[in-house]
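thought: user wants a sequence for this fold. calling inverse folding tool.
action: design(structure=
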């Protein structure tokens, strides 16, 4: 395993560009960069630009990972670049992106199912709870589209790896992978997104581990606030995720999986109010939308939350409000990444897990 960082969220990524961001990541001690989509590396899929990025990663001895975009047809209108790159033909656009990725040796490709809408509150921020189309209809459409992409992926030797994104459960992801085929699909395990679906990260890891081919490694505060739960990203080791229990599960299934830190974005790069994500865990409508959730896992989840809240009460960790009021610019984002990496290294060392510097 190697520890890297998100190529879109590493600070100053837009200003520096992909090649300079690789240099930046290397300076920060990262072993690789994970650009969310190949269009982040080259919006026109220019072969020369992509080859230069590949070459620089190889010169630095860094891994290079990337992806495609949303594979839920109901979400594609919110990503017009995926249609545009195919000159109006969405399937052709995906083929072109997949061919461009294969040409630079990137064959583990991130995809996701929907979007999180921070402008809305609670469950309405998730496409899972759209009222114009049901979530089951969105899953069925996603399954059909993945089946159309599968022959292209087989020809190119590619895996389309579905993220444990904010709106989808691990149960649903496993069913999608098993429906389309594990020879062409897999999972990008985001260690903190599952918290928004009231899934315990360790329990979730056990479910998805056989299919995990890429990761987004992150941590978060989960604490009660105004009768709901608040979610706030925190550096690895300072949130609720138990990496000492989780990482051995991933390593046992895929000892060469890359651990890519997904840091909270710098406010210098993306100015925004630092509002919490709200999880309506006690809402009947919210719970009805999670038919796979068991009483046992919810109990373990709430036990995890209460344990974290006790640490806040003891003054070991800042409250959500206090943390949100702290400065968070370039220097703080770099510290966030390096603190996360150091925690992951220490966990791996303690568990005798194989990590390459």
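)
observation: tool returned 357 residues.
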């Amino acid at each position: 395993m190697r520890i890297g960082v998100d190529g879109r969220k590493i600070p100053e990524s837009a200003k520096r560009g992909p090649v300079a961001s690789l240099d930046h990541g290397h300076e920060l001690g990262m072993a690789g960069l994970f650009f969310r989509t190949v269009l982040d590396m080259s919006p026109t899929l220019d072969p020369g630009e992509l080859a230069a990025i590949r070459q620089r990663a190889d010169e630095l001895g860094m891994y290079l990972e990337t992806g495609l975009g949303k594979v839920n047809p109901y979400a594609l209108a919110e990503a017009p670049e995926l249609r545009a790159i195919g000159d109006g033909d969405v399937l052709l656009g995906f083929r072109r992106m997949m061919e461009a990725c294969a040409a630079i040796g990137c064959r583990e490709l991130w995809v996701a199912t929907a979007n999180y809408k921070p402008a809305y509150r609670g469950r309405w921020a998730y496409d899972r709870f759209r009222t114009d189309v049901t979530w089951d209809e969105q899953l069925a459409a996603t399954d059909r589209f993945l089946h159309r992409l599968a022959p292209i992926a087989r020809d190119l030797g590619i895996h389309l790896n579905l993220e444990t994104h904010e709106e989808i459960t691990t149960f649903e992801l496993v069913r999608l992978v098993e429906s389309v085929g594990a020879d062409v699909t897999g999972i990008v395990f985001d260690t903190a997104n599952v918290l928004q679906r009231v899934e315990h990260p360790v329990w979730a890891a056990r479910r998805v581990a056989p299919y995990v081919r890429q990761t987004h490694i992150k941590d978060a505060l989960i604490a009660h606030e105004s009768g709901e739960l608040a979610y706030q990203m925190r550096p690895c080791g300072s949130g609720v995720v138990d990496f000492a229990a989780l990482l051995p599960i991933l390593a046992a299934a895929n000892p060469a999986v890359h651990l890519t830190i997904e840091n909270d974005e710098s406010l210098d790069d993306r100015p925004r109010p630092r509002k919490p994500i709200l999880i309506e865990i006690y809402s009947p409508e919210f719970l009805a939308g999670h038919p796979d959730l068991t009483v046992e896992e919810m109990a373990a989840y709430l036990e995890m939350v209460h344990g974290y809240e006790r640490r806040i009460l003891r003054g070991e960790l800042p409250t959500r409000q206090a943390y949100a009021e702290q400065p968070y610019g370039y220097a703080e984002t770099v510290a966030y990444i390096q603190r996360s990496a150091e925690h992951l290294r220490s966990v791996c060392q303690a568990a005798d897990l194989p990590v390459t510097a």
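thought: summarizing for user.
answer: Here is the designed sequence. The mean pLDDT is 97.
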